[in-house]
Amino acid sequence: MKVGYARTSTVDQLAGLEAQLRDLDAAGCEKVFSEQVSSVGKRERLDAALDFIREGDVLTVTRVDRLARSTQHLLQIVDLLNTKGAHLHVLNMNLNTSDATGKLMLTVIGAVGAWEREMMLERQREGIRKAVEAKKYKGRKPTARAKADEINTLRQQGVGPTEIAKRLGIGRASVYRILSRGVD
């Protein structure tokens, strides 16, 4: 059986998810698991797909980065599939782990992807360092401080810190920090 897995990082990426589902359907996937969650978050549908797969099945994804968060994670998934007697098929590369060449190519591609990500993060850190030195880096806007007046007003009305945090969509620690300073 062909089992598909589709993932986007956020719920805003609906078109990307729909494209993956369309491609998995066209590839003949009989059962598809999909979710909209960051690769570093808990991916319950991926776990369900891996649990569902049986001997002879093929887990199909549109791209490697939709499946694994690192080369190590990718190899763990492939190893799990191997222990179950199943394989991985990556559509955009027509890569299949049912043979030695497919396994080699998947490992190389996973390593290149991890290297690419590290290079991007390195460039990002360098850019931030330069912006800090040039006094142009401001960081993220402090959301709780911007709501200090609302926090103090709600507190004066007898609303508790936990409820204030819920109503304003900020962390409870931020509410306590603002309240401890008085009017900010």
From TrEMBL:
Identification of the protein by name: DNA invertase
Signal peptide (from-to): none
An example Gene Ontology molecular-function term: DNA binding
Entries under PROSITE patterns matching the protein: RECOMBINASES_3
Domain Resolvase/invertase-type recombinase catalytic span(s) in chain numbering: 1-135
Originating organism: Azospirillum brasilense
Family assignment from sequence similarity: Belongs to the site-specific recombinase resolvase family.
Classification via Pfam families: HTH_7 (PF02796), Resolvase (PF00239)
InterPro entries the record matches: Homeodomain-like_sf, Resolv_N, Resolvase-like_N_sf, Resolvase_HTH_dom, SSR_resolvase
